[in-house]
Specification:
homodimer; mainly alpha; Arc Repressor Mutant, subunit A; Tetracycline Repressor, domain 2; 2 domains; 76% helix; DNA-binding
Chain lengths: 200, 200
DNA sequence: CTAAAAACCGAGCATTAACTCAGTTTTACT
DNA sequence: AGTAAAACTGAGTTAATGCTCGGTTTTTAG
């Protein structure tokens, strides 16, 4: 592993676990055994370093997700969404630091003034919500999912799953204990239900 | 307003909008026109000041919620939860700074080492989830809500609603546009459905 | 009115953090 | 081997921050 990669890796861990402001370049230097000057040789400043971490996070999450969804066949849209939810919770465990980063507030704060950061954050969320939306559209064609607004439904499913993952991030509740209940809830939300089709 | 109250108010705004570490006592001093020494006269240090902000936040949110739920009659559990969801989204708009504070990561980080902070955070979440749980229990007695684990269901409903509120916090999506869809999803999750009762 | 107590002030201290730069080591190429 | 470029180093600079403390003003109570 090159020193540049080591810096990026250490920054990912520290930014996600301690926070951006709370992580000093000295911390990164100590963890990597690389001099502070080297950090600034590879990344012009701390914000650029964070941007690189975020770009790598985007790459990891979107690639992982897209390759999972591409190499699989689903009987219908409902099944696709169930798999997407399952994979989301699996990935949140596997890429714990990356998801922790996205569950912190400072990236969204920085996104207000830094367009590059905003673009990467939006790309990650778009990728995830798009997958759920495609599932809804697919399910509406094959009949496994009822009549409902696809994008909004995707956002709600995403919000539910991500919220539960965050419980774990915040040390409030163990997300995996809710896994079955989330799948059941998803199915209920997506299933055709005459009663609500009329009322909407 | 006393100076102590002014400090507390300014700290709430700054901690929630800028973050804890990013807010200096000089910032608070400037905003309130109160000398830095006065801040330390009323609050022994910055962490104690944050604790006071959190205590006030807990007081505000739990009192608001409890008084809303107490002074109202609901035809059944389902209606109670619908009202709780609606009030949650209303309150998140009214107490924007307080909810923003709870949607940041540092309070939960501090909670790991500071039991007083942990206690207040848990009290807020317990209060909110308890209300949803009570709604589920009530609905299961009056028949408006199906057979399902009350606490877990409450957590999922909470997670869904809070997740959508966070979209707004993070400037990703306007929460209010999803209001109707959330209510519909809630009803679907809570409604008795023979198909899933057996499968669980 | 007076004196003690409470509230308030802000300059100053000690520490820390982002970033620079002049110099050193390593790598790549002929 | 020789040399130029790339990679690396860490002490030093500058600015900011949490907090203290001696002194001043305001409030309170007899």
């Amino acid at each position: 592993m090159t020193r540049k990669e080591a810096i990026l890796q250490a920054a990912t861990v520290l930014f996600s676990q301690k926070g951006y402001k709370e992580t000093s370049t000295a911390d990164i230097s100590e963890l990597t055994k690389v001099a502070e000057g080297t950090i600034y040789y590879h990344f012009s400043n701390k914000e650029k370093l964070f941007l690189s971490v975020l770009e790598q996070t985007r790459e990891l999450i979107t690639k992982e997700f897209e390759s999972y969804m591409e190499n699989r066949q689903f009987r219908n849209g409902m099944e696709m969404i169930e798999h997407a939810v399952t994979f989301y919770m699996y990935l949140a465990g596997k890429l714990e630091n990356q998801f922790l980063l996205l569950h912190r507030h400072y990236p969204y704060k920085m996104a207000l003034t830094n367009p590059d950061i905003r673009e990467n954050l939006e790309a990650i969320y778009d990728c995830l919500v798009d997958i759920f939306e495609q599932g809804v559209l697919m399910g509406q064609q094959d009949g496994s999912i009822g009549k409902m607004p696809p994008r909004k439904t995707a956002l709600i499913i995403f919000s539910m799953v991500d919220g539960v993952v965050r419980f774990k991030t915040y040390n409030l509740y163990d997300a995996s204990a809710l896994f079955n209940d989330i799948i059941v809830s998803c199915r209920k939300i997506l299933t055709t239900d005459q009663k609500y089709e009329e009322g909407a």
